[in-house]
Amino acid sequence: MLIAGAALVLTLLFVDRISRKMPDLAVYWTAAVRARGAEPLYRIEDGHYQFKYLPAFAVLAIPLSSATLESAKAIWFVASVALLAALIVLSLRFLPERRKPAWLLVGVTLLVMLKFYGHELVLGQMNALFAVIVASAILVDLQPANTALASSREAIR
């Protein structure tokens, strides 16, 4: 019931307010469209919303450019909410020992971070994706040395 209520609130927020914004996602989407068409990525006429990242980032965003900007915003919003949830779950795994119940830790985290998570969603940024990638990599690195993955990591070092 709680999840359904949260989904409803997020849907209403997206339709009413967020879908008209997400300027950072528009920059990524525009760069992806240009990369797909082998057009110049960096253009002065883009002003403040000029693409400021490496060309590889535009190439990685090409799949998002196959949708309209409005559809891409909806897709990215849902993905970002899922990534933020994944980040919170991954963060729980960093605790050496859990002295409080998970629901309390998640609740306090959401209470403290909600403003920042909301800003992330409104701008359409990629920070949640990057944070999940980094947190996952750290957790993999913290795995015991007797796993096959750890053995392959050691071979690379």
Uncertain residue ranges:
none
Largest sheet, strands/sense/barrel = none
Oligomer: single chain
Indicate the mean pLDDT.
Answer: 84
- In helices, the fraction of residues equals 55-70%
Notable traits:
mainly alpha; 157 residues; 8 helices; flat
Structure, described:
The protein is mainly alpha-helical and 157 residues long. The chain has one domain. The protein is built from eight helices and no strands. The protein is flat, with a radius of gyration of 19 Å. The mean pLDDT is 84.
In a few lines, what is going on in this structure?
The protein has 157 residues and is mostly helical. The protein contains 8 helices and no strands.
Describe the SSE topology:
Layout: H1 2-16, H2 23-36, H3 55-60, H4 62-65, H5 69-92, H6 102-123, H7 127-141, H8 148-156
Helix pairs in contact: 5-6, 5-7
